[in-house]
Specification:
274 residues; alpha/beta; Rossmann fold; 6-phosphogluconate dehydrogenase C-terminal fold; 2 domains; 7-stranded mixed sheet
Amino acid sequence: MKAGIIGGTGKMGKLFQPVFERAGYEVLVSGRTTDVTKEEIAENCDLVIVSVPIHDTVNVIREIAPLMSERQILCDFTSLKVEPVAAMLESKAQVIGLHPMFGPTVSSIARQTIVMCPARVSGTTLSDLRHIFLAEGAVCTIATPEEHDRMMAIVQGLTHFVTICMADSIRRLGVDIEKTGPFMSPVYQIELSLMGRLLSQDPALYADILQENPFVPEVLSACRAAAADLSGIVESGDPDAFAEFFSRNTKHLGTYCGRGQVLTDALIECMVKK
């Protein structure tokens, strides 16, 4: 069995190459500097995975789709699923959209989540591919492409938007980050670390996540409305209004409030031990 990763010279491709090798596949990779081409992978591999930037994914899929047959499996590693899966369905291959919910800097995929969006599968194809990830200790979530993209508008879109806004607020205020060190609380350190982690990466990735997902505008509209309401309450100086706003969200999060407290306490404890 052969697996081919188009864009496999990138960090995510390098992370998954040994995963498929341990599952018994001979793995081929293509990239801008390889002798192996994406067309060769599409024509010769049993399992083909497209692992390229979001804005290139659909075009790459459409270039290779006519080369693939019913006996092959076509997947992608993109952070969006509706359009890539639709493009993959233009081929004759079996189609499963994949989204690793982690960056390529993890040491392994153990205890990491992979979302799987089966669109056209037969026999044991889905369970066989899922077993490869489970054998590595990963957690697999099954979803439709639309369910995936709607959830990503929250999990990625809202999260990254708020983090970037926090960083830009600090910049606008002209605050020297280093001078905040002597005043640092554990929670501020966590937030600052998230800002640093995001801003140390490729801005094109986050532009795609925020600009290419059609469900993000609705989420950002809710975020702006929440910020406007909370700003008005803060400026009013009314503690009862603040308590009501706060309590509505406590009720909505429910039992996760307690679990979040436990998790962040454990994280803070680890930070202290270092």
